[in-house]
Design goal:
Elements lengths: L2 E11 L4 E9 L3 E11 L2 E4 L4 E4 L3 E6 L8
Antiparallel strand pairs: 1-2, 1-6, 2-3, 3-4, 3-5
């Protein structure tokens, strides 16, 4: 089942990288982020388009804003 989420999240991966972005959709296996930024090796890099993350690669996730986009 695909769920529409639309919450700003910080997603930390097992390999040490992290993404910040709007978690747009999720299902049992994948997370879809929009407006994403990559944090890697002490640097931040904005990313174009949508980012797909396999949930098996996720170490932990944090909600970083409680207000939903567009409200």
């Amino acid at each position: 089942m695909i769920r529409i989420v639309r919450r700003r999240m910080l997603i930390n991966l097992k390999n040490g990288k992290a993404f910040s972005g709007i978690l747009w959709k999720r299902d049992r296996r994948l997370l879809l982020l929009r407006d994403a930024v990559l944090f890697e090796d002490g640097q931040t890099r904005p990313l174009d388009g949508e980012i797909i993350v396999d949930r098996r690669d996720v170490d932990f996730m944090q909600i970083v804003a409680t207000q939903e986009p567009g409200t």
